[in-house]
C-alpha cells in the first residue's frame, strides 16, 4: 500500500489543573496516556495574581479554576514523573510568569534536564489582563520590564522556550471584533519588541531570534469562515511588521506561530449539547487553512458554561481533535483556499482595517499608553455592548438561547449536580495549612546540600532582599527570581516584594466611556424599564436609584459586570462600580457609604459559595439587610438554591442573556425589599 504523505498534526492540549498539585499531576499523566501531545497548565487565581493561599483575597479561590502553586515543592509535585526535557508545556500565567518559569526551570534542573532543551510557552501578555481578564498586578511600565527581562533571559539560556504568548483570545471574549483582535494583539507585540530592542539586553543581530520565539494565542469563534480569514490576515500583518519595522530577513523567523483555544464565550448553558458542534466548527477555522494552521490547539469541553469539566468531558474534546487529525484526510493536502477570490477579498479587508487601527494606537504612544488612557478598554466595552444588543434583539441568533428554544430532555444534564467536576471545599484549608508548614521548614539545614552557608545558600529572607535590590536597579530580574525559587520563597512573597518596589495597578473599567448600545426608544423594553426606575426613585424620594456592581475575590473576568453596569446606567441608575478584586468587607462598606438600593455581585470563578454569604452577613450586621443582593455568574443549580436560601434575592446564570430584563428584575427586587407594589413591564 502506498504511504500517504501527511503533514505532522498540531500539538494537542487540554487546559487543565485543579485542587492541588498532586491531583493535577495525576490528571496530566492520564491525559498524556490518552494521546495528548502537550501540557497546558491552568493555575488558580491566587497563583495568577501573586497571592499565597492564606491571603485574605485568596479566600474561596484556592484550587478553583486551576492548580495552586505556591512554591518549589508544589511545582515538583505538579510535574512528578513527567520528564520536562521531553515535554512541551504551556503555562497560562501572566503577571507572575517570570516566577512560574523560574520554578519550572529549577524543577527541570533537579530532574537533571538540560535547560537549553526545555520547550514550551509562558503566556506573559499583561496587556490583555488590563483589558479583559484582570489578573494583572503591577503597573504597565514594570510589567513590560518583567516581560523584557524574561525574553532576554530565555533567548540566551532557554532558546526553545516561547517567553511570551501575545494573547488575543480574551480580547474576543471581552467583545473585540476581528479587526480589534488583530490590531490590539499586534500593537502589544510592537510594544514588547520595541522594549526588548531598546533595552540593550539583546544584540541587534539576535533580534531575529527574539521574533522567532514570539508566539500568539488566539480565539476562534463560530463564524468560522471569518475566523479563518482572520488567521490569514494575522500571518500577513505579522510578516510585514517584522520585515519592515524590525528588518527580519529570514522568513522562518517571521512566521506567525500561534496556538488556539476555541471560543468558550459562545458556549451556552441552554441546550449545552449544541456546544459540541460549535467547538468543531471553531476548530475548523484554525486547521482547514494549511498556510495559517495553528501550531497547537486546545478545545473547551461541552459543559464549561455549567461548571468545571470532568476528565471524561476533557477526553471528549481531545478525541474531537484526534478524529480530524488522524481519521480525516485534511493533512494530506496543501492550502484549500489559495486562489479563492472570496477569501482574498475578506483577508484584504481585515488587513487594511487592522493596520488603520494599529496606526491610531501608535499615534497615542503605543499599546501601553492606550491602556493607561482607557481607550482600548472603552472600545472593547462598547463592542461587547453592541454584540449583546444584537443577541437580545435576535439579530444574532444563538440556537437554544434566543431561537429554537424547545427541546427534548437532555440525558447529559439529567443530573446537573454530577454533570460537572466539583472541588472539595475542604481542599482550601489543606492547601492553606500546607503553605504555612512550608514557610516554617524551608530554612532548615536539610533544605539544600552543603552546610547552609548563607554566602552559598541564602535564606528566603535574604533572597527576597536581593530581589528588591534588583528591582530598584536596572538589572535583569531573572537571576534574583531564580535564587528566590531555590530558597523556597513563596508566590505571595515574590510578588509582595515586587509590589513594594513597583506598586500595584487598577486598570480602567471602560464603563464611563462606553456609548449607549441600546437606545431607549419609545415603546422599547429599555424605555419601559427606565420608566420603572424613575417611578421607583420618586416613590422612594431619591433622585436616582443606586446600584453597586461588585466583583468580590480574585475573579477578573469583568465582562458581565461591565455590561450590567453600562445597561443599568442607560436605564437611569446611578451605578457604583469600582472594578475587580475587592474583599467582601470592601464591597459591604461601599454599599453602606454610597447608600445603595441594591448590591449586584458577579463571580465566575466558583468562589460564590464562600464570598456571597460573607457579603450578606456584613450587610446584616450593619443593619442593611433590607438591601437586596443579587448574584450572577457560572453557578450550578445546587449552589443557586443554597444562595437563595442564604438570602440572595435573585441568581442569574449564562442562560439569562437579556440584560435589560435583568435590570428590570433588579428594580422588582428593590420594590419588593421596600414593600412597594409591583410595576408591570409589557413583554
Rg calc: 25 Å
Cα(first) to Cα(last) distance is 66 Å
- Morphology call: globular
Mind describing the biggest β-sheet? 5 strands, parallel
Please give the order of strands in the largest beta sheet: 1-10-9-8-7
Supply the number of helical segments: 25
Strand content: 5-15%
Structure description:
This protein has 683 residues and is an alpha/beta fold. It has helices at 21-33, 45-49, 72-78, 97-110, 126-133, 140-157, 169-173, 178-199, 207-212, 224-244, 275-285, 311-327, 341-363, 367-372, 375-393, 427-441, 460-472, 478-486, 491-502, 525-540, 559-570, 584-594, 608-621, 637-646, 659-673; strands at 11-13, 15-16, 39-42, 88-92, 119-122, 161-162, 164-167, 214-220, 258-262, 296-298, 546-550, 574-577, 598-603, 629-633, 650-652. The strands form 3 sheets. It has a 5-stranded parallel β-sheet. A 5-stranded parallel β-sheet has the order 2-3-4-5-6, with helices on one face. A 5-stranded parallel β-sheet has the order 12-11-13-14-15, with helices on both faces. α8 crosses α13. It is globular.
Task: Give a nutshell description of this structure.
This protein is 47% helix and 9% strand. With 683 residues, the protein is α/β, with parallel strands linked by helices.
Which short descriptors sum up this protein?
25 helices; single chain; 683 residues; 9% strand; alpha/beta; 5-stranded parallel sheet
Summarize the SSE layout with pairings.
Elements: E1 11-13, E2 15-16, H1 21-33, E3 39-42, H2 45-49, H3 72-78, E4 88-92, H4 97-110, E5 119-122, H5 126-133, H6 140-157, E6 161-162, E7 164-167, H7 169-173, H8 178-199, H9 207-212, E8 214-220, H10 224-244, E9 258-262, H11 275-285, E10 296-298, H12 311-327, H13 341-363, H14 367-372, H15 375-393, H16 427-441, H17 460-472, H18 478-486, H19 491-502, H20 525-540, E11 546-550, H21 559-570, E12 574-577, H22 584-594, E13 598-603, H23 608-621, E14 629-633, H24 637-646, E15 650-652, H25 659-673
Amino acid at each position: 500500500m502506498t504511504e500517504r504523505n501527511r503533514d505532522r498534526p498540531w500539538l494537542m492540549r487540554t487546559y487543565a489543573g485543579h485542587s492541588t498539585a498532586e491531583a493535577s499531576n495525576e490528571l496530566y499523566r492520564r491525559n498524556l496516556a490518552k494521546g495528548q501531545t502537550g501540557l497546558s497548565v491552568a493555575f488558580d487565581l491566587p497563583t495568577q495574581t501573586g497571592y499565597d493561599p492564606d491571603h485574605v483575597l485568596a479566600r474561596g479561590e484556592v484550587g478553583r479554576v486551576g492548580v495552586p502553586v505556591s512554591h518549589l515543592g508544589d511545582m515538583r509535585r505538579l510535574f512528578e514523573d513527567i520528564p520536562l526535557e521531553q515535554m512541551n508545556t504551556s503555562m497560562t500565567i501572566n503577571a507572575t510568569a517570570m516566577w512560574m518559569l523560574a520554578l519550572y526551570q529549577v524543577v527541570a534542573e533537579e530532574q537533571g534536564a538540560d535547560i537549553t532543551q526545555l520547550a514550551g510557552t509562558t503566556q506573559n501578555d499583561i496587556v490583555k489582563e488590563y483589558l479583559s481578564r484582570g489578573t494583572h498586578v503591577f503597573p504597565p511600565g514594570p510589567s513590560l520590564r518583567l516581560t523584557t527581562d524574561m525574553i532576554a533571559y530565555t533567548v540566551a539560556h532557554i532558546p526553545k522556550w516561547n517567553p511570551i504568548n501575545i494573547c488575543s483570545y480574551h480580547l474576543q471574549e471581552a467583545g473585540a471584533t476581528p479587526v480589534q483582535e488583530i490590531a490590539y494583539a499586534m500593537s502589544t507585540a510592537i510594544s514588547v519588541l520595541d522594549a526588548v530592542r531598546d533595552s540593550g539586553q539583546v544584540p541587534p543581530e539576535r533580534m531575529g531570534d527574539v521574533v522567532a520565539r514570539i508566539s500568539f494565542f488566539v480565539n476562534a469563534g463560530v463564524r468560522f469562515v471569518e475566523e479563518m480569514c482572520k488567521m490569514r490576515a494575522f500571518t500577513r500583518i505579522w510578516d510585514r511588521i517584522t520585515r519592515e519595522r524590525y528588518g527580519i530577513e529570514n522568513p522562518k523567523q517571521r512566521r506567525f506561530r500561534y496556538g488556539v483555544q476555541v471560543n468558550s464565550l459562545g458556549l451556552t448553558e441552554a441546550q449545552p449539547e449544541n456546544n459540541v458542534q460549535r467547538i468543531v466548527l471553531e476548530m475548523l477555522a484554525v486547521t482547514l487553512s494549511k498556510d495559517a494552521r495553528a501550531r497547537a490547539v486546545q478545545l473547551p469541553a461541552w459543559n464549561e458554561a455549567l461548571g468545571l469539566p470532568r476528565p471524561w468531558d476533557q477526553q471528549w474534546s481531545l478525541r474531537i481533535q484526534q478524529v480530524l487529525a488522524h481519521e480525516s484526510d485534511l493533512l494530506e493536502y496543501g492550502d484549500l483556499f489559495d486562489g479563492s477570490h472570496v477569501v482574498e477579498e475578506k483577508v484584504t479587508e481585515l488587513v487594511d482595517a487592522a493596520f488603520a487601527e494599529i496606526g491610531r494606537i501608535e499615534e497615542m504612544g503605543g499599546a501601553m499608553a492606550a491602556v493607561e488612557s482607557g481607550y482600548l478598554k472603552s472600545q472593547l466595552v462598547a463592542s461587547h455592548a453592541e454584540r449583546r444588543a444584537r443577541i437580545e434583539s435576535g439579530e444574532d441568533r444563538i440556537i437554544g438561547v434566543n431561537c429554537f428554544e424547545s427541546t427534548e430532555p437532555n440525558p447529559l444534564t439529567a443530573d446537573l449536580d454530577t454533570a460537572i467536576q466539583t472541588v472539595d471545599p475542604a481542599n482550601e484549608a489543606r492547601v492553606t495549612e500546607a503553605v504555612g508548614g512550608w514557610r516554617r521548614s524551608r530554612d532548615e539545614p536539610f533544605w539544600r546540600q552543603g552546610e547552609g552557608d548563607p554566602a552559598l545558600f541564602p535564606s528566603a529572607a535574604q533572597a527576597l532582599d536581593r530581589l528588591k535590590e534588583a528591582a530598584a536597579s536596572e538589572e535583569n530580574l531573572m537571576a534574583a527570581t531564580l535564587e528566590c525559587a531555590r530558597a523556597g520563597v513563596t508566590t505571595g512573597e515574590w510578588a509582595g516584594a515586587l509590589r513594594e518596589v513597583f506598586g500595584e495597578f487598577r486598570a480602567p473599567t471602560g464603563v464611563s466611556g462606553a456609548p449607549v448600545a441600546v437606545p431607549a426608544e419609545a415603546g422599547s423594553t429599555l424605555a419601559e424599564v427606565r420608566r420603572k426606575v424613575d417611578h421607583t426613585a420618586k416613590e422612594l424620594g431619591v433622585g436616582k436609584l443606586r446600584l453597586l456592581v461588585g466583583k468580590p475575590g480574585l475573579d477578573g473576568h469583568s465582562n458581565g459586570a461591565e455590561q450590567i453596569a453600562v445597561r443599568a446606567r442607560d436605564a437611569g441608575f446611578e451605578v457604583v462600580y469600582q472594578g475587580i478584586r475587592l474583599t467582601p468587607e470592601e464591597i459591604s462598606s461601599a454599599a453602606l457609604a454610597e447608600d445603595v438600593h441594591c448590591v449586584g455581585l458577579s463571580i465566575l470563578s466558583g468562589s460564590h459559595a464562600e464570598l456571597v454569604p460573607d457579603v450578606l452577613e456584613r450587610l446584616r450586621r450593619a443593619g442593611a439587610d433590607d438591601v437586596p443582593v443579587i448574584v450572577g455568574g457560572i453557578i450550578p443549580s445546587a449552589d443557586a438554591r443554597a444562595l437563595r436560601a442564604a438570602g440572595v434575592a435573585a441568581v442569574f446564570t449564562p442562560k439569562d442573556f437579556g440584560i435589560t430584563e435583568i435590570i428590570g428584575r433588579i428594580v422588582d427586587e428593590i420594590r419588593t425589599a421596600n414593600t412597594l407594589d409591583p410595576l408591570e413591564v409589557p413583554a
